[in-house]
Write a structure and sequence with these properties.
By secondary structure, the chain is mainly α. It is 68% helix and 0% strand. It has five helices and no strands. The longest helix has 36 residues.
Length: 142
């Protein structure tokens, strides 16, 4: 699980996150000092308080990415074999609660709405017919 976090790609990412976190700390100290100089302003003080928040966000993102990688590795290591029956009732309950891969995927296009007849809404039915006629004339033209 943690071996994937020691690949060259991840070592580069670890270095990048460490450098980014240390840089935000240095920038916070620099802005703090700048705010207390003669030419300093409240803007510098605001930046001095803002840079540590960027550093905390960097650490949060780093941890989040590592957890996502560990979760992805765990999913790849334990694929579910189709057609295998659960051995006891506890396994059966877990299998029933877990949604299938087909149910988890959302369609890219929503399903079509039911057609509207002239008796339901005559104005909408006329507009839909107008659009259908435009579509048909466009198909004939191309």
């Amino acid at each position: 699980m943690f071996r994937s976090l020691l690949t060259p790609r991840w070592l580069l990412l670890h270095a990048l996150f460490i450098v980014a976190t240390v840089a935000t700390g240095f920038l916070a100290v620099w802005q703090w000092d700048r705010a207390h100089e003669a030419g300093g302003s409240f803007q510098n003080l605001g930046y001095a308080l803002q840079w540590p928040l960027f550093g905390v966000f960097t650490i949060f993102l780093w941890i989040r990415l590592m957890r996502m990688e560990a979760h992805r590795d765990r999913d790849e290591a334990e694929p579910e074999a189709p057609g295998t029956a659960p051995q006891d009732e506890a396994d059966l309950q877990v299998v029933e609660e877990a949604p299938s891969a087909a149910r988890r995927k959302r369609p890219l296009v929503p399903p079509p709405a039911p057609p509207v007849g002239a008796e339901d809404d005559p104005e909408l039915a006329a507009y839909n017919q107008y659009l259908a006629d435009l579509n048909e004339s466009d198909r004939r033209a191309s």
